[in-house]
Design goal:
49% of the residues lie in helices and 16% in strands. It has 134 residues and is an alpha+beta fold.
Amino acid sequence: MTGLVLKLGPHERVLINGAVVENGDRRSKLAIMTPNAHILRLRDAIHPEEVNTPVRRVCYIAQLVLSGDADPAEARLQLLRGIEQLSQVLTDHDSRGQLNLATTAVLEENHYMALRALRSLLPREERLFAACPS
C-alpha cells in the first residue's frame, strides 16, 4: 500500500481537502491514495489566537495552505521569507536541517512536509523563550 496512512483515534477529526472528517467510536486507519491531498489533523492545528511566536506564525501560513484558506502561490513568498528570518535566529545544526527541509518542501509545493519540518522547531523555540526572561 502506498500513500499516506492516517491512524485516527475515536472521534478524532481530520481536514481532508477542505472537508472535516470525523472518525467513529473505534480506532481506525485511513489510506489517502490521492497524491498531494491537503491533510490536517485538527488536534494538531494552530488556532489564530495561538499564533504568538515566529515559528508558530510560519507554521500557521503553511497550515492555511493545507486547509485551503490560502493560495499556495501567495503563501510561498511569505513562507520563504519566514523561514529565512527563522534561519537567522535558529543557527544550530538540527534547526538548519529542519529549515532546509521546510524550504525544499515549499519550493516543491509540499506544504504538509513543510509544516511537519517547521512544527519540529516548536519545542526548540519554547526552550529559547523560556531561557530568556521577559
